[in-house]
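Protein folds are increasingly written down as discrete tokens. With that in mind, we are printing a sequence and the tokens encoding its fold.
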Amino acid sequence: MKAGGNWVDPFDDLSDEELDAHLDELFSVRPGSVAVSLRIAPDLLGRVKRQAARAGVPYQTFMKAILESAVSRLERPRESRTPVRRASRQR
């Protein structure tokens, strides 16, 4: 397979020890994660998986993004939240 262009390895001048130290530094700033178990209705899981597929991401990554977004929204001060319009009941 032929590589396009003249690619230059930005880490070519680093020793093995320097590269290891650089990689350790990069991975140390990544936030850790904790494995959890969550019971979810099968139809909801199917819907989440379909939406994740449409977005082109793994479904667990998609779920984490949704959860992060929802919690961040809840943490905003009340006055800055967008009001939710509810349908009025007619009798």
User: Anything to note?
Assistant: Residues 79 and 85 are 15 Å apart (CA to CA). The chain has three helices and no strands.
